[in-house]
Amino acid sequence: MTAAKSPVAIRAAEAPPKAKQSNYPQPFAAMVAGRFKRPLGDVFGLKNFGVNLTKLAPGAISALRHAHTVQDEFIYILQGTPVLITDTGETSLSPGMCAGFKSGSGDGHHLVNRSQEEVVYLEIGDRNPGDAASYPDDDLQALFEAGQWVFKHKNGCNY
What are the backbone angles phi and psi of residue 93, rounded to the nearest 5°? Predict the structure, then answer.
């Protein structure tokens, strides 16, 4: 039996959505309600980096404010006007703008859609093993182990 062949090209907006829109444990999963991801990189079998087409409904956030130890991240705004929140403050973004987040910087970041319009952006991150994420505003830490995120309280106890 042969493995399914990846397509040559697709319309990004028609890519299958993530089966589970958040890996966060409760109550954190509810905090990202209104975020909708389509994992574009997975459609093509990409192994070294991931690409998501992400939509934020009005009032939604992209993630809890976080920083990765190993994974670099990059975003490119396609539609809407989200606010980028980092350790240094707030930056209004608009279509055509981009931002990058270097691994190991400790600079917590996320997007907030404070507008009444949908925000659409590409998010790109590498898939290097051994990643972890810290969440400066929440009692949460994450470790990427055996291909999945494991969430713990900051004291190390499991959720």
Answer: -115, 160
Tell me the two tokens of residue 25: 């444990």
pLDDT tens, 11-65?
Answer: 999 999 999 999 999 999 999 999 999 999 999 999 999 999 999 999 999 999 9
Rama region for 95: left / alpha / beta (φ>0; ψ in -120 to 50; rest): beta
The kind and range of the H/E element at 43 are: helix 40-43
Closest listed residue to residue 39, CA positions, set 10, 60, 70: 10
- pLDDT of the residue at 2: 53
User: The tokens of 112 are what?
Assistant: 């907030």
- Among candidate residues 129, 134, 122, the one with its CA nearest the CA of residue 148: 129
Delineate the domains of the chain, giving CATH numbers in brackets.
Answer: 24-132 (2.60.120.10)
Q: Which helix (H) or strand (E) holds 28?
A: helix 28-31
Strand order in the sheet with 89-92: 89-92, 83-86, 110-112
How much is the pTM?
A: 0.93
